[in-house]
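[09:14] KT: can someone run the structure on this one? pasting the chain below
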Amino acid sequence: MNRVISLLQKMRLRQIVTSFLVVLTFLVSTAFDVHGNQLQAQAEPVTPEATKYKTDSGDDQISIKQERIKENAEKSAKLLADEGKQVKNQAVESTQDSGKNLFDNIREKLNLDEPIDPGTKKAVEQLEDTASEVVKAPQRALKNAID
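[09:31] RB: done, structure tokens below
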């Protein structure tokens, strides 16, 4: 009985893995266009109207696409350069204006001009005492161990 159950589980796992690999192969082949233009219908034009629209070959389309890609790349590079100059100018202007106010903003946000709360002072003192006790305890233990 155990053999039958384990065999069924192994078969189920095999089926799942196989179907996963088939789907993965299909998705990868379509994503990378492995088949190229083979999936397109290739037929000669029959009517005279259709012969007017017939293209010579795929080479013309490839060269057109290459030209478009080059043009788009040049436009993108120009836009990025212009945008970079604008960002640089804005950064220079903002640092010149805000450089003076930077410390004032920090002082205001952190409330550095206000006095320290007495409860906070007490808590800091307690922490200092506890820290000194923590440091001194091992030292005392070493002294006692040596004596």
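[09:33] KT: thanks! The longest helix spans residues 58-109.
[09:34] RB: yep, looked fine to me
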